[in-house]
Amino acid sequence: MNLIILSAVWGLIMMYGGVVSKRKSTPKILAIVGISILLITNLLEYYNLFAIHVDVKGMLKFTPFGLVFNSIVLLSMLFYFLLSTEDFDKVGAYPSEYYALIFFVLCGIGLASSFDTLLMLFLGIEIISIPLYILAGSDKKNLKSNEASLKYFLMGSFSTGVMLMGIAFLYGATGTFYIDAMNLGTGHLQPMVAIGIVLLMIALAFKVSAAPFHFWTPDVYDGSPTVFTSFMATIVKVGGFVAFLRLFDNAFGKMQSEWQTLIAIITAATLLIGNVTAVFQQSVKRMLAYSSIAQAGFMMFAIFALNTFAREGLILYSAAYCIATIGIFAILAKMKDYTFEGFNGLAKSHPALAFMNTVFLLSLAGIPLTAGFFSKYYMLIGAVKNGNQIWLVVFAVLMAAVSAYYYFRVIQAMYFREGNAEVAPVSGRFQTILAVATILVIILGIFPSLLTDLLYY
Amino acid sequence: MGITQILFWFLTALALGSALMVIFSKNPVHSVLWLIVTFFAISGHYILLNAQFLAIVNIIVYAGAIMVLFLFVVMLMNLNSELESQKGKWLKVAGAFSGGCLFIVIIAALKDSADMHQQVLLKSGDIGLIHNLGKALFENYVVPFELSSVLFLSAIVGTVVIGKKGD
Fold this sequence. Notes:
- The complex is a heterodimer of chains A (457) and B (167).
- Chain A is an all-alpha fold.
- Chain A contains 19 helices and no strands.
- Chain A has one domain (2-456).
- In chain A, 77% of the residues lie in helices and 0% in strands.
- In chain A, helix 2 packs antiparallel against helix 3, helix 11 runs parallel beside helix 17 and helix 13 packs antiparallel against helix 18.
- The two termini of chain A are 19 Å apart.
- The model of chain A has no long low-confidence stretch (mean pLDDT 91).
- With 167 residues, chain B is mostly helical.
- The mean pLDDT of chain B is 83.
- Classes of the chains: A mainly alpha (457), B mainly alpha (167).
């Protein structure tokens, strides 16, 4: 509950901070202080030391899984703010409002990781979505940003409608919003429940940009200002996944055999489309958009398998994917040219940046000794233990091999191509924080149990 | 057939008919006007279910405020049937096909549903009255009620950020 209440309150503080003080540094400092407070209070709640208690009538349930997930999100957010506060000023004239909207999104993620009724699920997903429509269009003079915002808004509200319809069908079948009280049984699905599950699956697949509901992703990620693309592709995406897993685990877990094939098809399609299309991209930003679809395919394995490995895997995957992608986007935001050629010769002029970028890219590709390896490993082992559709595992390994191609293209450009990559001035602080993130990626790649053990505190 | 049933079938026919007219009329202004008729018919259904408060809110908010806004937007943008962009034949076929698929799936799933043949019975007749609604809202549902304020606040912040003049 700490995260939900304090993030909403801190969003208000950010807004008033922008009114009271006109200094440019105020919102940055406030945001970093705010995210640190959220992280600390969330950890205190995890260790049962300090928690705000509100009588929620059983609508929210704070499990170790949810709290560990929140901590990962907040730690990634801390990296995100430390790395990209400078870029907030470049986007538009209202940085403190952008920060406020981001804090509201965190409130939504707090709901998504702890909901116990469909009502809270809906509120959480909507609180995550609505600020994003605005952030996508915050670069008002850029036509592509406007297009991204409008496209995201129209498609997003349509998928919200689908989700509401799904919730309505489930309510009609069971007469309750509470996940525990639904008692859907284990056998054959009632017709109305089946429709409800499928509609909810479609809506959530849209929110996490799983194929075939991914068509908005490349345009929106490409058109939005790069800082906000980084936010959308990481924090928001894993926030969607935690809601997806929580819903399908707690509410529909007992009838997994009824819907597992559908999830398997969505997973396979997401892996195929994300990876194969990413190969043909010319812009690194657009490549990362498709890569985020491909990574979503791997995260779908958590919902496919629904066992301990899958849950641990999703935690690990969130950490590995968020930190690495935030790092890559932070470096990308410093580049003048977003195409692959723009990275030519980066290793000569900025060896440290090029090395850290390489570690992040290797982690996304899932090379051993990086966090990405174990997160993919946990996902696949979860699917193997589940044992129903082994072809999916084989297919995923194949697609991981394809993904290595486009991640290595960036590495190749940085190390083996001649050219002088134009980079905006990089401060020493920026490099230090990136170095911390790099070390974290490597540590998690060697000792993944540091994170997964937290689930059983 | 009692008066309630006659009213029920009349309102149902009205709601479905006017909803179809929303889609079929060429002129966008007519579409909006038919939508108002649809909302009134649905409000009638709410009254039949003894949910007066919901019915009034539906008329005030949807048929009143939102529809007036729609009408203004349509008139200000000066849309009419000539200016409407011509959609390709295949797009229409694809739309009809995918819509039809959803229709068939829902019909197929619901045709065997046992619930279809049961009548809806209200436990007590006063469940939709404002007194009970307020009690439910501020006792059982007070947390989601307060949390939705975050949702609205972010929407308001967004409107200001997007709509403000200048950069």
